[in-house]
Specification:
The structure is a single chain. This protein is α/β, with parallel strands linked by helices. The chain folds into two domains: about 1-175, Rossmann fold (3-Layer(aba) Sandwich), CATH 3.40.50.170; about 195-280, Formyl transferase, C-terminal domain (Methionyl-tRNA Fmet Formyltransferase, Chain A, domain 2). Helices cover about 25% and strands about 25% of the residues. It is built from seven helices and 13 strands. The strands form three sheets. The chain has a seven-stranded mixed beta sheet, with helices on both faces. Strands 8-9-11-10 form a four-stranded antiparallel beta sheet. Strands 12-13 form a two-stranded antiparallel ribbon. Helix 1 (about 10-20) packs parallel to helix 2 (about 40-45), helix 1 packs parallel to helix 6 and helix 5 (about 110-115) runs antiparallel to helix 7 (about 205-215). The longest helix is centred in the middle third of the chain and has 24 residues, at about 150-175. The radius of gyration is 20 Å and the shape is elongated. The protein starts with a strand and ends in a 9-residue tail after the last strand. Residues about 270-285 have low confidence and may be disordered.
Length: about 290
């Protein structure tokens, strides 16, 4: 199969090209949403024989997929809801990788919601895309342990390992013209509500700690919290601990303290990808 990747994440395109090729298929192009693109990073991540295309809008996608005579679109970390015309452009459709055990945690930030809700398990699912968010037929999925001290940096290798295991199964099923299994009833989780962007010391310490951790799993371009008024200024809290940490600042909550290990100014500047870049940060307290 001729496979076209759709992603805003350079590491995804790098990993998927390798897996697709190892499974005996041909990765021919990576399509990146131009509004989120740092061109150099995507070009560096791509294999030298794989084109990188920067789509101006969703209207470009069907045309690009047809131009590359795509048999399959493979999508992960792509921010646009695509049209039926785009879904119909590749011969076998478009498959999406979603970091949850669908039909649970449909929506843009499943990892953040799972952390917020205190889940101990998340997952990786591959499914056919349809005209709605994360509702198409299932092709393969695998549970992934979510540790109490999980960070984005510790979770990425787990997601990559699951993807490398699942994708050969997915590609084999698609090549055999299998259409997967229908999802059951599920839940859609959108962005966090505005109030959740602000830390309220009236909450218990465990909830405040979970709030800080959850925001760390929201992509920087969509991150607006967690904010705390401190010494007459508003800061973004980056990392907290429920145990006392040498050099950390104590924040008294409803049932006891949480320790602010790292914070940064709340002001942000826009970077070339359209995301938000920190204006600066405070060094972490020693753990």
């Amino acid at each position: 199969m001729r496979v076209v990747l759709l992603t805003a994440v350079p590491d995804v395109s790098r990993g998927y090209v390798e897996v697709v090729r190892a499974a005996g298929h041909e990765p021919v192009a990576v399509i990146v949403p131009r509004v989120r693109a740092l061109a150099g990073e995507h070009v560096d991540a791509a294999s030298p024989d794989v084109d990188v295309c920067f789509a101006a809008s969703e209207r470009s996608l069907a045309r690009l997929l047809r131009a590359y005579e795509a048999d399959l679109g493979l999508c992960t970390g792509f921010p646009w809801l695509v049209s039926q015309d785009t879904l119909d452009a590749p011969r076998f459709g478009i498959v999406n990788g979603h970091p949850s055990l669908l039909p649970r945690y449909r929506g843009p930030f499943p990892l953040a919601w799972a952390v917020r809700n205190g889940e101990t398990e998340i997952g990786m699912t591959y499914h056919f895309m349809d005209a709605s968010f994360d509702t198409g037929n299932l092709l393969a999925q695998k549970p992934i342990r979510l540790d109490a001290d999980e960070t984005w940096e510790s979770l990425v290798p787990k997601l990559a390992e699951a993807s490398a295991e699942l994708l050969p199964v997915v590609l084999s099923r698609v090549a055999a013209a299998e259409r997967g299994e229908a999802q059951g009833r599920g839940e859609y989780r959108s962005r966090f509500e505005d109030a959740y962007a602000h830390i309220d010391p009236a909450r218990i310490a465990a909830e405040t700690h979970a709030q800080v951790r959850a925001w760390a799993f929201v992509p920087p371009f969509a991150r607006s919290g967690p904010l705390l008024e401190r010494d007459g200024a508003v800061v973004r809290v980056v990392r907290t601990s429920l145990d006392e940490v040498d050099g950390a600042e104590r924040l008294d909550c409803a049932d006891g303290p949480v320790w602010i290990v790292e914070w940064e100014p709340a002001q942000v500047s826009t970077n070339p990808s359209g995301g938000a870049a920190s204006a600066g940060s405070r060094p972490s307290a020693s753990a």
